Amino acid sequence: MTEVIGVRFRGGCKEYYFDPHGIAVETGQFVIVETAQGTEYAQCLSGNHEVDDGVVVRPLRALVRVATENDRRTMEYNRQREKDAFGICQKKIAERGLDMKLVRVESCFDGSKIVFFFTSEGRVDFRELVRDLAGVFRARIELRQIGVRDEAKMLGGLGICGRPFCCAQFLDDFVPVSIKMAKTQNLSLNPTKISGACGRLMCCLKYEQAAYEDAVKRMPKNDSFVLTPDGPGNVSAVNLVRETLSVRLDDAGSAQKSYHNCEVRVLRNGKGSREGIEIPAERPARFVKQDAESELEFAPSPMFRALEISEPAVAPAAQEMPAADEGGEKRERRRRGGRGRRGGRGRDGEGRRETRPEGVGAEKPAGEKGSERRKPVERKAPAPAAEAGGEGEKSTHRRRHRGGRGRRGGHGSGGGTPPAAPKAE
């Protein structure tokens, strides 16, 4: 076992091991380590711990020290220097007319070397560009050509799934991805749907490839001759995710039915003739899917158990119903709205008494109108229509309108014009 610490450099997701030399380093601290390119500023991902000797790549580089405030200021100065170098290099590329795209600039911690990363479709002669940059920065200049995948990893961004690029977030190395993976997973072969922002096949095609390959081995192929609980038939479609089959039964004609993989028995895998294949008399059993919710239906949750414990053992007595009036009529329930809500008359005509301090107001005597019960209003029957044959006479009954007063020149709520008074003879 070897004691190491894990660090990560800027712009990378891979973890590298270094020898701490007895220095205790906590997770999240910035450290100065010795690399093949010189001293570098990195962040600690995992503190002092032991790993197997086979995991460590020899020779194991050493930890120089834990980063100080001066080291942080040096790092900020290098970041500003990289921004200036990026703009100057772009101007030099435009002056030289070189077919290259500058992606990123990185400076060593001690400032002795500056690395320029660029992409290009072909080979580029950048010897004159190196001389120009060396004359400006007075440091060792290195131009490194990278691929489109490395460009996406350095720049970052959001994929079609809405999440950050996997290569810029957690992938250590790029894995080979082929179009065969898309065919195995029954995906669309449209390049715009299975390609990432870099223009190559998406790295996530590799994530579930092992599960799909295992499902393909257990599932029958298309056009296989199978026996189902409803009889023999041929497989027309396979769903690897749900492990279901669409079978075209012999007795049902062109109709198709869906079955689970455990409900069918493969008599011939793949295309071929049925000659010499015996159909067993015993058919496979149907697959009964257990519902997880039904198992928990009668199991009380902890919340209900707490409520049962907190409730008293004896149920409270039932509320007594209000007694009937002397006349045998039950009291009607008062409405929340309308009259009688705040000391006014209720539905039964009885007024509420408000508690007032002395001297503020006195109750009304029983003889006043406020304490009397309102009598129902008697509606008068409409006047009879005038006898036919009278000239100039019209019916007094007019159609009421929904509008307010005087909708069509009327004075009442019905909107009709009052009939003219009969003239004296």
Account of the 3D structure:
With 425 residues, the protein is α+β, with helices and mostly antiparallel strands. Among the domains are: 2-67, no CATH class; 74-146, GMP Synthetase, Chain A, domain 3, CATH 3.30.300.20; 219-287, SH3 type barrels (Roll). 20% of the residues lie in helices and 19% in strands. It contains nine helices and 13 strands. It has helices at 69-96, 127-137, 148-155, 166-169, 179-184, 191-194, 209-218, 292-295, 302-310, and strands spanning 2-8, 16-18, 30-35, 38-51, 63-66, 101-107, 113-119, 140-145, 225-228, 231-239, 244-249, 256-260, 265-268. Strands 2-1-4-3-5 form a five-stranded antiparallel beta sheet, with no helix packed on it. A five-stranded antiparallel beta sheet has the order 12-11-10-9-13, with no helix packed on it. Strands 6-7-8 form a three-stranded mixed beta sheet, sandwiched between helices. A hairpin with a 5-residue loop joins strand 6 (101-107) and strand 7 (113-119). Helix 1 crosses helix 2 (127-137). The longest helix has 28 residues, at 69-96. The protein is elongated. 12% of the residues are buried. Residues 301-330, 343-372, 384-396 and 409-417 have low confidence and may be disordered.
